[in-house]
Amino acid sequence: MSAIFGSDDGFDEALADADRHLRVVEGGKGKKRGGGGGAPPESPPEDLDWADAPFECLGVQGETWWFRDSYHQVIGMNASRLSQRGPLTVLLAGDADGWAARHWPEYDREGLRTNDYAPRKVHKAIAARMLDVGLFDPTMPRRGPGVWLHNGELVVHCGNAVLFPGQDARRPSFLRDGVAYIGGPPMPLPHDGRQGRFPPPAPALALEAEALFGKWNWNAHSTEKVLLGWVALANLGAAPPMRPLTIVDGQEGGGKTTLLKCVAALCPAGEWTDDTTESGLRQRMNGRAAPVVLDEFEGEEQVRVLGLLRRIVTNEGSRSFRGQASQQGLVTEVVGTAMVGAIGAPVANAAEATRILNVMLWPRPQGAPPLEEATLLARCRAMAPALWGRAIAAWPRIKANAVVARQALDRAGCSPRHMDRLGWLIAAREAMVSDEPLTADGAEEALVWVTPWLVTEDEQAEDSTAARCLQHLMASPVLIATAHSETVATLVARALREAGSPAERHLHELGLRLAPYPVDSGLSRGLYVATGRRPALGKLFAGTEWQSGRWGTVLAQLRRRLPDGAEFRAAVVRTRIRFSGENDRAQAVWLAPELLPGHGHGGEGDAF
User: Region Disordered: what ranges (predicted)?
Assistant: First the structure.
């Protein structure tokens, strides 16, 4: 022993003075990480604000703690395992600015602060937070950003503040009447005049927004009025029972992307996304009552995404239950509305069409001034809180207007299936541009600007099948190269702009040809669609009601009446039309340019 310590006296002295040389650290002696070290205070940090956390505590269920993580996912984690660094790392995935380390720092064996967090301290703080939040049922409704109905009144969720009528703003997370109010990105408060907030603006601001939409080149000149009504409904979240899904059908050069960005900017609780997968969209929109705006809406996922979007636009939206490996069920709720950009409106059956508003955007006329995107977006963002507040304040008037508008539509012979769609758009637009309730005469005047979308019962019976058949054809993807496909609508638009382009060859191979009728007449080019058992076209219609060559019979019934009263019908061509080669000839149906989606007035370069 003396050989090691120098003398027995030295060893005894060190042992007797052990408390001077040994330190007890939280988490066990000799542990360098995980316990936190030093002697940190037990009380919560004074500057602790759970709204700044990279996750949100939703509550407790048995041994499971429920969170909303930085990816907007609702996840359940075992409570005891969260005292370990590994599971905490998963929960803190979005902690880019060191929130946990700032509030619960780790200390090394010398008592010096490190740049990391102390897992046990974080675990203890989460436990205290869960005690405040309370029990959580993963099947209970979750309400995030947007506008909700509570006992017939509007509750406005602004991300980090929940506004109940007659009450001061409240911070999420909390439970109320069996509903979990979860947090989200902060957004400006609406100018609704409640609880000392800015008063709603005058109608002039709504008219300015309507005029802004008029800067685009629309198929129907009243589209800007319809879009103002749609923005008002979209900003009311889950409150209106009908919030039509809007599809902007436009070709390149029309400013479609700029338009969609402006619409998103006018909706403070809304979201712009390029995630066009059904699962991704459902996860992003889960627990929100606000619009989502998507651009470049094409591809094989389109059918599944449309299936989701069509379900969210009425009443309480879409609700689904999903099991998990932990045996805990998880409910996903998506409610609100959406606006999507597409080249060629996707097909919809008769019932689905009553939930969809199709607007057609033409390329900008030659010589028209360019759209100043930065200026437009800045103005839209500046107007958004005030327009949002006006829609909220006008909600009682919008509900009353909807009754009057529906009565006018009924007198005009509108199909009952379409009355809700158009009635709520009229009601919202009129409430935004006037402080007076809608009268019967005012509703009759409003019918003029919804005429392009007004469908009578006779028209619904005659045209729905043929129109859906054409929509299906135009939205069908065509394989151009390995792992690359484009819709028929995209190929048609490109072939119209670029004579002799590869797009024309791809169309000919399908059994489609752009040419006048008759072929050598020199008139405007329409679209010839081969009839009979055409294999390439047959693949596009496989599994539909138009398969086995039935598309020709149905497309021959297509007709369309333009806003100026002109009517166009499909023509059955008795002579055999040449397609991809001299020997490749077939009978066909010819569709005039005016029958094609997105047709414009400026010649072949416009649209289609």
Answer: 26-50
CA 475 to chain centre: 20
176 part of a folded domain: yes
Side-chain-side CA neighbours of residue 370 (13 Å): 5
Q: Is 7 part of any domain?
A: no
pLDDT (0 to 100) of residue 313:
85
pTM over 0.85: no
One domain for residues 442 and 497 = no
For the cut 60, the answer to whether the pLDDT of residue 30 exceeds it is no
Amino acid type, 310: R
Query: In the sheet that 526-530 helps form, which strands lie side by side, from edge to edge?
Result: 512-515, 526-530, 585-591, 571-578
Question: Tokens for 84?
Answer: 């370990």
| Domain boundary residue, one of 453, 477, 499 | 453
257 and 379 share one domain: yes
Instruction: Report residue 312: phi and psi, to 5°.
Output: -85, -10
Supply the pLDDT for residue 229.
98
CA distance 16 to 8: 12
Phi, psi for residue 64 in degrees, rounded to 5: -105, 130
Residue 103 lies in domain: 31-61+69-133
In 3D space, the residue among 457, 246, 479 whose CA is nearest the CA of residue 346 turns out to be: 246
Residue 293 within a domain: yes
Residue type, 384: A
Six-digit token string for 500: 């002799």
Q: Contacts by 44-49 with C-beta closer than 8 Å and gap 24+?
A: 44/125, 44/128, 45/103, 45/104, 47/103, 48/103, 48/125
Is the pLDDT score of 459 beyond 60? no
Asked if 546 and 581 sit in the same domain, the reply is yes
What is the count of structural domains for the chain?
Answer: 4
Query: What is the full DSSP assignment across 559-581?
Result: EEE-TTS-EEE-EEEEEEEE-SS
Q: How many Cα atoms within 13 Å fall on the side-chain side of residue 269?
A: 39
What percent of the chain has a predicted confidence (pLDDT) above 90?
A: 38
- Please state, as a whole number, how many other Cβ atoms lie within 10 Å of the Cβ of residue 216: 22
Does one domain contain both 389 and 276? Answer: yes
Q: Which is higher by pLDDT, 267 or 545? A: 267
Which has the higher per-residue pLDDT, 149 or 250? 149
Torsion, Cα 129 132 134 139, to 10 degrees, reads -60
Question: What is the 3-state secondary structure of 328-372?
Answer: CCEEEEEECCEEEEECCCCCCCHHHHCCEEEEEECCCCCCCCCCC
Task: Tell me the average pLDDT across 337-365.
Answer: 79
pLDDT on residue 44: 59
pLDDT at 135 over 60: yes
Tokens for 331, please give them: 């409910």
Residue 300: predicted pLDDT? 58
Is residue 13 assigned to a domain?
A: no
Residue 330 pLDDT level (bands cut at 50, 70, 90): low
| pLDDT digit string, tens, across residues 209-231 | 999 999 999 988 899 999 999 99
